[in-house]
User: Fold these one by one.
Assistant:
Number 1:
Amino acid sequence: MNVGGKQYRSIWLEADGRSVSYIDQTELPFAFVVRRMTRVDEAAEAIRAMRVRGAPLIGATAAFGICLALAEDHTDASLKSAVELLLATRPTARNLRWALDQMLAEVKDLRPPQRPAAAFAKAKAICDQDVAVCRAIGEHGFRLLRETSATKRGPVNVLTHCNAGWLACVDLGTALAPVYRAHAAGLPVHVWVDETRPRNQGALTAWELKAHGVPHTVIVDNAGGLLMQQGKVDLCLVGTDRTTGQGDVCNKIGTYLKALAAKDNGVPFYVALPSSSIDWETDGRSIPIEERGADEVVCVSGRTGAGERVTISVMPEASTANYGFDVTPARLITALVTERGLCPASAKGLRALFPENAEPERRRRQRRTRG
Amino acid sequence: MNVGGKQYRSIWLEADGRSVSYIDQTELPFAFVVRRMTRVDEAAEAIRAMRVRGAPLIGATAAFGICLALAEDHTDASLKSAVELLLATRPTARNLRWALDQMLAEVKDLRPPQRPAAAFAKAKAICDQDVAVCRAIGEHGFRLLRETSATKRGPVNVLTHCNAGWLACVDLGTALAPVYRAHAAGLPVHVWVDETRPRNQGALTAWELKAHGVPHTVIVDNAGGLLMQQGKVDLCLVGTDRTTGQGDVCNKIGTYLKALAAKDNGVPFYVALPSSSIDWETDGRSIPIEERGADEVVCVSGRTGAGERVTISVMPEASTANYGFDVTPARLITALVTERGLCPASAKGLRALFPENAEPERRRRQRRTRG
């Protein structure tokens, strides 16, 4: 997408074929900073510190992390330690494991000297595939927005939580891809942007939408229920970090509360996802919920009136808890929007759309366990 | 309650009998600042700027505002303009109108020179009555906590939203009164404190609980659903700004989302309220929902590492909306905890507990409309 008139992806291989650049999202929305990395530990740090975030982008970054490790040392030991390092960065993200599995499958049986070139090619292919998947999600979701628009006057009001836009992917986004597609088609659309405490990823969503010229309004996470009671939300559209084979959706903490409000007010609740974020073998109760540091609750970053970037405490030392995700049960979800189209949030719905996935995945797992 | 070993109320008449002091809650939780006021416009500003907040305390402050106006000018014109000024400060607060009605009834038929003394006496009585009401709510709510404690090991885990503690009242609090009562009785209790964006009143709740030694954990507003899914909440207990005669509860924005999560997870959801916050003649859909400035969403106040108090923007100029309250439908509420005991959140339940209120209130209204 465009930033200041220039087209960007959120991560890309530089022309030297050996270093990888990405947009540092901890600097947004106030500053647009591109960072270049050449070592796997930089990739791990970028994921861990959430300089890159969003399930697909975490996957792409991890894939490039493997490339950087192999470029430095193409041995089995290097490959193994890179996988372990990257896998430990964010325990909930499904795409992280998916991308690492893809990279492993691509390079592990090659002669070590061949690995770096194959890895870079595969990481680039993962990025291109992500863009193609997001484009397809955008098309399928766009039809929902168009149908909604046909039934009402004024813009289609979409509520979204966290950031599932192009910054969370390589380009286009998942939940926001249909919004961008609608906007491009001239369909009037307005987005209610949950600020998404504690990390305020809503500021990223607002930044994206503003840069692209899509009307939007930032609200606190507490507000969505009232807006739905008042008929100000036509549909909810969120992303996901991991979807179970039963259609339960693990996403940024607070998603579940919006799904409950949508159900209570007859507002459709859609989840946009690439099939790579489906975990066919886990149920909603078994997904590990990442706990993060207390600092994220107590400290807030922003800009003073004088333009200085500072981090402040919003309360004195306090006892806090900080869970990253919650699980929205499938029964609250109107439909899943995937790259292959819409399906009910259920085992049956998912298996009908992805008949090839359930079995091969199980076999792959067994192979990995044995290997 | 105690602050630094000295006992305080949140507002009090000074020994001079002519000035009123209150704890400036915009300075908390970092600084404990007492402000003294002598004019009605200072009282109005204190309410409008939320230096005082919480339904009962707003009522008490408005009552003292009438005193200050009459002490300066005891004419009908002064009384009328003071009522109008104070009534306009916070449109949603029920106790504001209740307290002003009480003050009006007390002084309007007196000879003007008698009004100031009568007003101060009445305002003081309103404060004392509020403390007595909170004490009774504490006793009734305590029984709930004791019953819960009997069914489990470890502390009773209470989730609360916003601040309905002693800072929101004159003393003791509404939702927190049962918690303080339980703590005094040696019953182990732990409070999950919603931070309550956009104004972070959870920091006030945490400050109160810490000062009193009650175990608590601050969480973002997004977290409560997950905690309930995980069985970490035994009951929810919140305050209210206005309760309808049908048992619908208007409270700080986001309360509705927690009530939905409680219902979905079989967690009891209680609302503690003085009967003065019941609006017998309004239904949930007719309550005006206060809209506040965008600054509250975009700007956050806190303290830098160097100890300086600053306000920062968490995002660049953004389009925002900021609604103060939502309405939790009676069907989501397990019971109302009033000074007369518990009752179902329904017209029948409320009228059984307050049989005298529905009719006289209607007659008073009609009198006011005719007068």
Number 2:
Amino acid sequence: LGVGLLGGSIGLAAKSSISGCKIIGYGHRTSTLDAALARKAIDQAFTRPEDAVRDCDLVILCTPVGMFGQLLDQIAPALMPEALVTDVGSTKRSVVQWTEQHLPNPGRFVGSHPIAGSEKRGIQFARPDLFANALCLTTPTALTNPQAVEAVESFWRLLGMRLMRLTPEEHDSLLAEVSHLPHALAAVLATIPSDKALSLCGKGFLDATRIAAGDPGLWRDIFMDNRDNLQDTLRATRGELDILLSLLETGNADAVQAWLAAAAARRQALDPPPR
Amino acid sequence: LGVGLLGGSIGLAAKSSISGCKIIGYGHRTSTLDAALARKAIDQAFTRPEDAVRDCDLVILCTPVGMFGQLLDQIAPALMPEALVTDVGSTKRSVVQWTEQHLPNPGRFVGSHPIAGSEKRGIQFARPDLFANALCLTTPTALTNPQAVEAVESFWRLLGMRLMRLTPEEHDSLLAEVSHLPHALAAVLATIPSDKALSLCGKGFLDATRIAAGDPGLWRDIFMDNRDNLQDTLRATRGELDILLSLLETGNADAVQAWLAAAAARRQALDPPPR
């Protein structure tokens, strides 16, 4: 449901990895569906989600997070009793809660978050290897059917992903730190410089701000949905800025270097070891 | 003077673009000088800067900014009267001031800042195309000899660079916005997440924090040298974070989207138009 970068890439990846699978796509724009059909990311297209899910073994929500509630309402009566439902949303508490309220069989819903994608948007950027070697987080709860979790995780594994389980609460708290805060700070960075300063920027600035080019509507949904956690990380950022400001104000060069060295060590540890 | 990433790349680039030029390298470690000789980035090596500059037409300071004062003191008595002196430092007010105090012929000094490099450090990362199509800022003052400016700019042009002139004050203020602040925020971003959160990070986080892996000593010098401007941008960042925090606290989704959209538009404008 939703045949953009992620939905389209799932179609392409599934069709190249799983023999005999049929992909049904839902989208509200026929031009997008036509593009997805032309790229063979989907085999069949519907403009009403309830029509799309009717015969599906596995339903994957790939729209922006803000549409999940309405989408679940629409598909609930049309799902096969044993249909599995998952999603690719960047936040997990709300979708898990909505499924428990809206789906006739919430045990067959397994929250997923494949950590893949880019600041680009749309079927034209979809590619079959988007998920290869990337991490997929699943967020089963006490209500989730264990076989449903296994089945959904097997699907992501067939697309080449590594799996990790978290609670929805853990997920949203951790992702605020490594995804939603970075987006907010990249946006701040893109906002502050004057036009003249921007005209001088180098590769470092472009890399540091690339994610800020992401779709504002998509990120509005993520920010609003996870705003308690995001607020916590923004306050932590303010605290860290105050630390750096006070080191600069006192002119303590050694302390500035120690502060930079701690950050550099943490960042360097994320790079693969040199060959 | 200094044969690391920038000094070594200048040697490689000059030797591939300018026929018959001879490159003399200074470094305080013989192992670095040996590596630079082996890569043919330099033709001759000295471990005392005053020995290195004695017969040079153009002297380029490529050490960390914090060493410039001492280095200028050491080379001043050894320079040929008509020698041109420039540098590749990331800040410009202090080096310009030092040259006016330390050099016998300050009119022959032209501050330069080639906006090229990376978070990597050392002669092993040097490459002859590091400067191709990149921007080089020069910061002549009323004391600078106009022919010296032309000559230094011609040198950078031979290495493939585009040129722009700024006052030292403009330079340091603008670079705080597009280079020093981004480094500080990347370091903050690398500092805040828990180890568990870091283990989930994707490409977006890695790109946004890459510059934070840069050499802490080098960046300490830059931060300390430009700390008034950096403090201003850090305070502006705090103000922008407070704006976002208040939008999130009031739950104003439209305003959050407008804030994100403004940042996305500014960032998108920096990308080359799609083919």
Number 3:
Amino acid sequence: VAKERFFEDLHVGETFTSGTYEVTAEEIIAFARRYDPQAFHVDPAAARSSVFGRLVASGSHTAAMTMRMFVDSEIGPTDGSLGAGVDSLRWMRPVVPGDVLQLQIEIVKLRLLRSKPDRGIVTLKIDTRNAAGEAVQTLKLNTIVPRRDGRGA
Amino acid sequence: VAKERFFEDLHVGETFTSGTYEVTAEEIIAFARRYDPQAFHVDPAAARSSVFGRLVASGSHTAAMTMRMFVDSEIGPTDGSLGAGVDSLRWMRPVVPGDVLQLQIEIVKLRLLRSKPDRGIVTLKIDTRNAAGEAVQTLKLNTIVPRRDGRGA
């Protein structure tokens, strides 16, 4: 049975921790070859003489790894929920091979739309941290969640 | 020789068009299996009974394909430039197998930071469109670009 969750079940200030994601050089390079082929993402030798001094993950890759941890988390998508967009996304620190990432997720806003009585918008602040607890990325993600009392409206 | 571009070369209102990116079911599924394994992104049969009625690309995947077209574009990264973050990202229409995507990119803001005299922040509005010209995603991306007259500062 799929997870079921409604807008009314959620509260501002609730927090969640995801599982972890181990970052490998192989995956950094494979992702970046296809989606972000800059030297410091695809070429370990060239990366050493770059501003980062070593191979680092593409920001798009960090965002994608974050999505996977979010999807697998307790507050991840359920039947009827949808991603609506991102309010802000910042990359604060490099993500490097061997990093073990984990998310700290907080519900920061709940909104109802008059035009859509059967659903609400949930804004989540999703911090992606490395094993040292340093935030490598912070993200505000808007998701659409069905309302329990809006069913059939 | 790597492309060279400085903050002083850029002007608000300048526009650029990227190359194209053809979306396949195989890539939609491969990306989503790893980064966003929701049924409507990984399972064509289950997708038919979903809200989308068909297999659709993960929003993270659309963002990653957008990054690839941006990197390959005339206004893409050059030596010394870096992605700083995203101000907003919205997914407006589903991206489906067979779509041919292309970017319309506009410089919408140029900022100098007193604390960083050797570089500036360039805000780009990046619209990802399908072959019908419909925007499937819109993104405001901040990039850091070196200043010509800041070298050695």
